[in-house]
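Thread amino acids onto this structure.
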């Protein structure tokens, strides 16, 4: 099976990582964020302090046990009780505040990422321009990677600080109590002071090197796992969204095959993760188990020679454990580090894509004409829409439309026709300023309301009232206004359903959905209306009725329709027909199409 090209993983360096993390900490929320972080660090340091106290308590306990002193034993138990209570309270609040900081940071970041994604139509261009993409599934980048970026960063940073302070606190305890070790080499006697500290360092270094060497592939594997999971979920959502079409085509077997293929990707990659994790766990578990016995083995000679008491031996063992644990921060955090790095790489790719799409160079200049000096707003709106030397291309540079010039006067009704795939919708996309590939100038009249109706209108999930008001907020139009427009558009039966919530694009027929789009037109009352096969699913009579209503309800409205049906000709005064200059009928992108402008016999408009 052919695998789809995967977005290349972005490699990130420290400045790039810092650029992802920094913004929140210097934002308008910085003081609250920093205060929370400081409080959490203080609580974590408090835990380290209690651990230091417990280490000393440990020594006293074993000495008291050895000397069978019951009174001291009882007092030690009280000491432990209050230390344990404080530890529990500090540990609970440390987690609670960390979670609070995480959700604040995530909320702030998500808000920024949603803005970036929706700004300059990056969300649209990312889907359009498939070439050279560095990230996929933007929904997952925003929903999941920001979640792990905030959670993992806090866990890693706080873990690192705790480990560093634990290391500093216990190194000097271990240094002081472990004493020097002496040996002779080359007929000379040598002494290594605080030799247990060096043993711990050597032990942790060997372990860290081993874990890094074994676990390296996990970063790439985690990156892919998230991608495959998102692809699978997206596949399931597609079936849900297109349930009716799949059912009518009896496409279940094909869907199953495609979903299975995506699940296979998940399973294969998961096996690779399991293999690496198994090797990693072998290393980590041996390392962890050996750490229990290693300090006892190393300090046993001094205990048996009588140089240290049992209490000191146990204190050494405990302090060694703390030092070794702190030095093993890298080993213990390796899995988190691997998934954190994969999230960072994915977010860097997403940011690069969004930035590239926002700054996509375009030579199509779409601007709003400034009103001529002393011109009234009405006169400004009278100015027509002007298209000069417009060339349109496909994203890969092939020519679609060549040198098109036109002027649309106010109140003009224009029909755009031509073979399928010649670029009619693309011309409308260019006028709507969402198609960047090409060159030329488009001037829109000042203060004119422009509305674009595609063949399949978008109906958000929610109440019918909200779907009809879109993109205005629910409540922008009164129920009376909406009801009278529903009546006009031959949808009286929906008047009762304004407050109902449903997935309207699944519930209503395509013809009804197109009539709903016309309701939006009558509610919004645009000055210029583009209809891209917006009535193709209606019966001929309803289509004619709505076209007749347009100039009646919206006097002076400019209408530009894309349509294949010749019955619509009589509602238009001008035709723009896409054709090959050479007369060739087949699509050939080398030469592009030309548009012939011709007058039409006056109809009812
Ligand atoms: N994002 C894209 N990437 C690559 N090619 C595209 C993209 N969008 C459109 N095209 C191509 O551009 C050409 C023009 O598409 P357009 O939708 O403008 O055609 P049309 O004339 O409106 O067709 P129809 O009458 O079938 O609606 C088609 O060949 C289409 O495949």
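Threaded sequence (605 positions):
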């Amino acid at each position: 099976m052919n695998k789809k090209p995967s977005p290349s993983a972005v490699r990130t360096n420290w400045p790039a990582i810092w650029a992802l993390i920094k913004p929140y900490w210097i934002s308008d929320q910085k003081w609250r964020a920093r205060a929370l972080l400081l409080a959490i660090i203080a609580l974590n340091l408090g835990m380290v302090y209690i651990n230091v106290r417990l280490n000393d308590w440990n020594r006293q306990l074993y000495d008291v046990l050895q000397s069978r002193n019951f009174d001291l034993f009882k007092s030690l138990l009280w000491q432990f009780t209050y230390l344990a209570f404080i530890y529990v309270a500090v540990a609970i609040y440390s987690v609670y505040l960390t979670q609070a900081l995480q959700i604040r940071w995530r909320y702030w970041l998500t808000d920024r990422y949603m803005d970036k994604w929706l700004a300059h139509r990056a969300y649209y261009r990312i889907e359009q321009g498939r070439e050279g993409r560095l990230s996929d599934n933007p929904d997952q980048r925003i929903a999941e990677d920001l979640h792990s970026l905030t959670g993992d960063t806090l866990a890693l940073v706080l873990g690192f600080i705790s480990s560093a302070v634990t290391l500093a606190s216990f190194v000097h305890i271990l240094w002081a109590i472990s004493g020097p070790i002496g040996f002779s080499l080359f007929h000379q006697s040598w002494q290594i002071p605080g030799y247990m500290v060096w043993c711990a360092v050597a032990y942790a270094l060997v372990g860290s090197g081993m874990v890094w060497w074994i676990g390296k592939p996990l970063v790439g594997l985690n990156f892919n796992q998230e991608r495959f999971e998102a692809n699978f979920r997206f596949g399931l959502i597609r079936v849900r969204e297109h349930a009716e079409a799949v059912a009518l085509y009896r496409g279940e077997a094909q869907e199953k095959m495609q979903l299975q293929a995506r699940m296979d990707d998940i399973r294969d990659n998961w096996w690779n993760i399991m293999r690496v994790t198994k090797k990693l766990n072998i290393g980590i578990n041996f390392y962890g188990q050996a750490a229990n016995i290693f300090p006892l083995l190393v300090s046993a000679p001094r205990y048996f020679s009588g140089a240290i008491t049992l209490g000191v031996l146990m204190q050494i063992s405990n302090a060694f454990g703390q030092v070794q644990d702190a030095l093993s921060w890298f080993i213990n955090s390796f899995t988190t580090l691997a998934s954190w790095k994969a999230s960072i790489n994915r977010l860097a790719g997403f940011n690069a894509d969004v930035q590239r799409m926002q700054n996509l160079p375009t030579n199509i200049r779409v601007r709003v004409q400034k009103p001529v000096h002393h011109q009234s707003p009405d006169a400004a709106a009278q100015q027509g829409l002007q298209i000069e030397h417009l060339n349109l291309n496909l994203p890969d540079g092939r020519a679609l439309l060549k040198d098109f010039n036109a002027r649309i006067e106010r109140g003009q009704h224009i029909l755009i026709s031509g073979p399928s795939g010649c670029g009619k919708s693309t011309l409308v996309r260019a006028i709507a300023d969402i198609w960047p590939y090409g060159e030329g100038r488009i001037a829109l009249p000042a203060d004119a309301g422009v509305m674009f109706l595609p063949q399949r209108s978008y109906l958000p999930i929610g109440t019918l009232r909200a779907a009809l008001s879109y993109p205005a907020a629910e409540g922008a139009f009164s129920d009376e206004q909406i009801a009278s427009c529903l009546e006009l558009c031959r949808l009286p039966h929906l008047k009762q359903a304004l407050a109902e919530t449903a997935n309207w694009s699944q519930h209503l027929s395509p013809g009804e959905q197109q009539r709903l789009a016309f309701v939006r037109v009558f509610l919004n009352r645009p000055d210029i209306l583009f209809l891209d096969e917006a009535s193709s699913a209606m019966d001929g009579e309803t289509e004619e009725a709505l076209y007749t209503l347009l100039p009646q309800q919206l006097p002076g409205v400019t209408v530009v329709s894309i349509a294949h049906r010749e019955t619509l000709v009589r509602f238009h005064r001008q035709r723009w027909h896409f054709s090959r200059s050479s007369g060739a009928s087949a699509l050939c992108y080398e030469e592009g199409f030309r548009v012939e402008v011709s007058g039409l016999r006056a109809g009812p408009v």
